[in-house]
Amino acid sequence: MLILAFETSCDETAAAVTRNGREVLSNRVLSQTDLHEVYGGVVPEIASRRHAEAISRLADLAVSDAGITKKDIDAVAVTCTPGLIGALLVGVSFAKAAAMALGVPLIPVHHICGHVAANYIAYPELEPPFICLAVSGGNTILADVRDYTDMRVIGSTADDAAGECFDKIARVLGLGYPGGGPIDEAAKNGDDKKYRLPRAAVKGRPFDMSFSGLKTAVINLIRETEQKQEALDLPSLCASFCAAVSDSLVPGTVSAAGEFGRDKIAVAGGVAANSRIRRDFETAAERAGLKLYVPPLKLCGDNAAMIGCQGYYEYLAGNVAGLDLNAAAKTGLRPVSGPG
After folding, report:
1. Which of 127, 199, 206, 265 lies 20 to 30 Å (CA to CA) from residue 23?
2. Cis ω on the peptide bond leading into residue 296 (within 30° of 0)?
3. Residue 321 gets which letter from DSSP?
4. Pairing mode of beta strands 2-7, 12-19
5. Which of 101, 103, 109, 142 is nearest to 8 (CA)?
């Protein structure tokens, strides 16, 4: 089954063609980083306009790259939630028009489910059930993936997303946008124990996370250092920050695998590209006897291939939309309180 897929939830315009939920025939991604860097973050109106300008051309390129014709397409999949509402609406509107013009089914895909599916591309042998941590600039969710279309939230951030903290701290440090890459690079030459930073827990919710206090602590440390006219050890601060984020993500994910009886854990989303977090997951999974799945860096960020692959399983489950499909800035996966 050939699926033409679109992803426009934030500041990447993406189009891809996938086959049967595992094979990627093409994967085009147009980044808007240069447009938003001057503002230190994504400007929704600019993002939406650029999506509208680029999506038709990217669709044609994705079809051409795949070596197929438009008549070969069996379905159209699109991210419909969550994300920036204007950006989502561009993708959803174009996908509806494409599905109608081609006379094929329209498949709505949850952005987080798409990130989970990035692991299916990288690891054809991976099948549910497993625990997955989806961590990005806009979302930090720990899910029990019971089946391809049955993913239940067992933990999430109580405030800021982990990726948002990377971006905000990078902006304060003058490292540019997005912040994940520059902070990761700077941290490689730092002492991760030089700066004592908080690790927050949410009382009574063992799998939930909190990053607001960590973000504030780092920003206050930077400001106090400037006021005292003291030298800031940038590499060590970045290393200490990455260690604190990792300590807030890794143990809970491993613990959830034991609590829910899973022998596999996966990580997905842009923050999964961080080298410290990847390394800590490898160590923790080996100690716990768990199989770890982390997608390659090119599949950690937003892309349409992951949407097309998840779209295949949504189609098999009967999750097909009509032309009245709408976008939603926020919708959650189904929460549960414990195993079973």
Report:
1. 265
2. no
3. B
4. antiparallel
5. 109
